[in-house]
Amino acid sequence: SAVIENIENKTIDAIRAQQLEISSLSQIVLQNRMALDLLLTSQGGVCTVINTSCCMYVDQSGRISTDLE
């Protein structure tokens, strides 16, 4: 029905908008991490300063976009 199709389209639009925001945020997180690591280089980097083993992962698989298509 037209009502269900309208709801589906609005839901897809909302999810795509969120995916764009997530992608932008992940870029900012990565840039901030790189800048912080650079600032703390003389002290051994972020992982040394916070005294833990650390690994950074930013998912850029695009799964949400792929699933919507």
From TrEMBL:
Family matches, as Pfam families: TLV_coat
InterPro entries: TLV/ENV_coat_polyprotein (IPR018154)
Protein name according to UniProt: ERVV2 protein
Classification via Gene3D superfamilies: 1.10.287.210
Top-rank lineage group of the source organism: Eukaryota
This protein's encoding gene: Ervv2_1
Classification lineage: Eukaryota, Metazoa, Chordata, Craniata, Vertebrata
UniProt keywords, alphabetically: Disulfide bond
Signal peptide start and end residues: none
